[in-house]
Design a protein that fits this description.
Glutaredoxin; 3 helices; two-stranded antiparallel sheet; mainly alpha; 9% strand; 50% helix
Length: 68
């Protein structure tokens, strides 16, 4: 859902995905930062947002700012 939203808003070149399954350092950072292994997670100003629908809404509302 989140990846589809990122692609539909043409934001893929502005948002860097960090795979927690294939890169142990990403998994460790995510767990250390949030205490959770849950994904998807979007970090906004170093604060995690977890819920897919919340992430999609935030992306939609901030797409122009992201494209900056």
């Amino acid at each position: 859902m989140v990846v589809r939203k990122i692609n539909s808003l043409d934001l893929a070149k502005f948002i860097v995905p960090k795979n927690t399954l294939t890169d142990r350092s990403n998994a460790e950072f995510h767990m250390k930062t949030t205490g959770r292994s849950t994904v998807p997670c979007l970090y906004i100003d170093d604060k995690p947002m977890f819920e897919s629908s919340d992430i999609c809404t935030w992306l939609e509302e901030n797409k122009e700012k992201i494209k900056g």
